[in-house]
Amino acid sequence: YPTWQRSLARRARESQMKRFCRAQAIQRRLEEIEVTFRELEQQGIKLEKLLRDENESPADQQTQWTNQLLYLVQKKNNLMTEESDLMIAVQELKLEEQQCQLDEKLRSYMNKEDTLKTPEDEKAEQEILKQLVEVVNKRNVLIQLQEEKRLSEL
């Protein structure tokens, strides 16, 4: 391989490892969120029982329990938003991986001399190019979705 091909291969491996590490970090965070959801659910159940069962408790105590319950709901909503963002990031990673694989295939066809290409090669090259455009469009939609979400949160 010429030097530029080795460099491309090395960069492809490096970007693949970065995507893999990001995917692992996202998976860990999703698992943490799931555990936190369960904990919040248990705390919420306890508070609801206290509010229902303790009708003769002082109003201050009931207000405190209600505030705690509202805080738990707010915390759960924040976690759901974060989980949604992470799921979008997972989709983006999948599309990024798909794009890299298609890039590699397309590059192999494009590196072939035009005189050596068969009609099947040209057809395959066009199909890969079409798939690549679809993947890029899907990634663009995800980015727009993230931007809209960010703007609506502001």
What does this structure look like?
- InterPro entries: bMERB_dom (IPR022735), F-actin_Monoox_Mical (IPR050540).
- Its main location: membrane.
- Keywords: Coiled coil, Membrane, Monooxygenase, Oxidoreductase.
- It is found in: Membrane.
- The chain has three helices and no strands.
- The model has no long low-confidence stretch (mean pLDDT 91).
- Helix 1 runs antiparallel to helix 2 and helix 2 packs antiparallel against helix 3.
- It starts with a helix and ends with a helix.
- It has one domain.
- With 154 residues, the chain is mostly helical.
Largest sheet: none
Report the strand count. 0
Based on CA atoms alone, the radius of gyration comes out at 25 Å
Q: Termini separation (Å)?
A: 51 Å
Count of helical stretches: 3
Can you give the helix content as a percent range? over 70%
List the secondary-structure elements in sequence, H or E.
HHH
* SS-based class: mainly alpha
The fraction of residues assigned to DSSP E strands is under 5%
Q: Per the principal axes of the C-alpha atoms, what is the gross shape?
A: elongated
pLDDT under 50 segments (min length 5)? none
On the 0-100 scale, what is the average pLDDT?
91
Give the tally of structural domains: 1
